[in-house]
């Protein structure tokens, strides 16, 4: 009986982690700014806490998802960028900065699929 309970609990915890991790998976489209002023499309895929994907076709690196927090890096046009933000339902809010901490910008995305 105790073993069944442990197996059931482990299954529920695993299912819960898959559901929360998958909340970021999919295509995200920029909202609220003019075209060309920010990243237009994000395609993201989580695997546990690891995050992979692209921003306007450029591969992200060092991606992580921890609960509702999101973090990743990329190099675009020779410029290293860092993105940090949060996900809430079908909205993703990201803050972009250069690797030296300069030029901060905020972006909002809606889930496309």
Give the topology.
Layout: H1 2-22, E1 26-31, E2 41-47, E3 50-55, E4 58-59, E5 61-66, E6 69-76, E7 79-88, E8 91-98, E9 105-111
Antiparallel strand pairs: 1-2, 1-9, 2-3, 3-4, 3-5, 5-6, 6-7, 7-8, 8-9
Account of the protein in words:
It is built from 1 helix and 9 strands; from the N terminus they run αβββββββββ. It has one helix at 2-22; strands at residues 26-31, 41-47, 50-55, 58-59, 61-66, 69-76, 79-88, 91-98, 105-111. Strands 1-2-3-5-6-7-8-9 form an 8-stranded antiparallel beta barrel. The chain is globular and about 60 Å long.
Q: Say what the CATH topology is.
A: Lipocalin
Classify the secondary structure makeup into a structural class.
Answer: alpha+beta
Low-confidence region ranges: 5-21
Q: What is the count of DSSP helices, taking H or I runs of 4+ residues? A: 1
Note the run of SSEs as H and E.
HEEEEEEEEE
CATH top level class name: Mainly Beta
Distance between the termini: 42 Å
Largest sheet: 8 strands, antiparallel, barrel
Rg over CA atoms: 16 Å
Percent strand equals over 45%
Instruction: Give the proportion of residues in helices.
Output: 10-25%
What topology, given as strand order, has the largest sheet? 1-2-3-5-6-7-8-9
Instruction: Tell the overall outline.
Output: globular
User: What count of structural domains?
Assistant: 1
Under the CATH scheme, the architecture is Beta Barrel
